[in-house]
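Help!! Second protein's tokens look totally different from the first
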Amino acid sequence: MTTSLEAAIRDKSALVGVVGLGYVGLPLIRAFVAARFRTLGFDVDRAKVDLLSTGKSHIEHIPSEWIARCIEDGAFEPTTDMRRLAEPDALLICVPTPLSESRDPDLEYVEQTTRQIAKTLRPGQLVVLESTTYPGTTRDVLLPILSAGGQVVGKDFFLSYSPEREDPGNPDFSADKIPKVVGGIEPQSGRLAAMLYGQAVVEVVPVSNCEVAEASKIVENTYRSVNIAMVNELKMLFDRIGIDVWEVIDAARTKPFGFQAFYPGPGLGGHCIPIDPFYLSWIARRHGMPTRFIELAGEINTAMPRYVIGRVQEALNEFGKPLRGSKICVLGAAYKRDVDDTRESPSFELMEMLLAAGAELSYNDPHVPKLPKKRDYDFSYMASTPLTAEFLAGQDCLLIATDHTAYDYDFIVRHAPLIVDTRNATKHVTTGREKIRKA
């Protein structure tokens, strides 16, 4: 089994299957197609698969022209038919791993996918989990499901973990340009997975087992979460004593060693950073150890939307206006600048709080013309409102939640009566600064 799979990987005749065609899975498909592998993409979302089948992309930084060309060439085929999971030689799992209402890991999608794979698992297949999760998931959750039919890992099939590392919209770090950490459930699995990824990405970083690979992903994002929490707390402190935290960070980052700049914001966004620290805290509790430092960082970051709404109220109060009944436009629905990715975007929490407070709400995002329905939020009835001079002048306050470079901030400040800026997006605006409040 090993010899035939290894040969198929080496001569690129192996069929690569990717389960989950979202912001992780589709760029991964692109990397393997660029490496001249044939790919088969699986997703339960019929509308998404139908769109891809017609040569259209649902992700802004993955061009429709590329999708159409791959479909036509036979390099990529999307499907909802999970019976075809037996066809690929390698199956890469890229499904969501959200949190439950109690902020515990929710592995529903991972478990469902693994059960579907187990139904069709054939000798010689390699299965790799890419979804962010806690250390032990691959061994404790996937392995028992895949082994239940009697096949033996390392002999009949192979199982590894390689954490996704995706930075949507960053042209310098597309999926093929980011080193891949790879850890196997046993040595043979790790070797085959490393060999596969080595054909498609710039560098493979093999580690001793899947638990190390799982932990590396958690550490990467917990590191960012903790540092963002620190600057968010500093922002609130410096606001109170009249110091511009953005200027402080710009000064501190001139030190050529020992300092890495992190920036405050209205809350954490993206799939990983808001979620990974809670996965780590959960596994720590299972082992009887508190992670007070990490949990405190999570609390600070989670509280940022409420702090921002407080700053909006303060700004309106200066003009003698209550939040209730005020016209508020949120600029930016994506979780970061210049992408259409709204996963865990703090904008949704901000909008929910504004509506609950009685504001008359609208939003604009040049990358998100219509809001998607979320697990916890449903603003799917809302569409992006054009930022005309008349519209801006008619608002009581604009809340900048995402600092897209497409925005003409001079135009916005010129026509809007009041701006609350959570991203320091207006730092270069020189006229009308008396209308800007930082949050």
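Here's the second one for comparison:
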Amino acid sequence: MLADIAAAGYAGAPIGPKPATSAAERLSMWQRYGLQPAPGYIGADFWDPKKYSAIIAQTTSYAQFAREVGLTTCYVAANVDNTKVVNGRTRMQAAGHATTADGLTDAEWRQFIETTTEVATIMQAHGVTAAFHNHVGSFVETRAELDLLMAAVSPALLALGPDTGHMAWAGDDPVAMVNTYATRIVTMHLKDVNAAAAAKARADRTDYRGAERYGVWTELGQGSVDFPAIFATLSRARFAGWLIVETDVTQLATPLESALQSRAYLRTLDK
């Protein structure tokens, strides 16, 4: 995978710890392919008080790893969830058509905010900025849910590392989201969405995997996300972080072809 990423012309790739492997060994693998370490990802059940201690331990371990490999940013996201909420369905089932009835209870939101605040505080103590990441199928999928969290946790602690495609699939406008939070965004996942597939999945009320089978994901520049508008906003905000290309399920023959096509599209925006 690293060889394909390098061959496609990317500067780096997300990195994370691996059991029984030192940070130096992990970093050396990236260096072998001429790749820089890019921000990795922590997903957790921030709303569950029974998971609090484990989340804090995971955060501390990851922050130490990030510091050792020279990272200053980490994506933080709610786990994609299959737990039934009060209305009887899971967020995976509600993917792309979630309502307020699919959300957390007030008590769960308070726990979510408390845990996220502590996670961001621990990371900051290690010189790492926590960047929250919106994700379809999780309890922070919609723009309303993201706004609630961003308002609840201090910008001095919690930055934003959004996903353009997940915001579009959720039915919200990624350009408007970037306009609102441009100065708080420190890294971003670039993902494109086939709007017709997303609309069909929403109308059919299909679940997360069903939407993927409809072809909701596509290579950059082939979908509905307005990347030129997003980049113009980031430029005005003097953004200088990592932009990470993702196509969760390619419509092309191989991952390498997908990576090459998205990279070629980005080069057209450099002109």
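Reply: Different proteins will give different token patterns, so don't panic. The radius of gyration is 18 Å.
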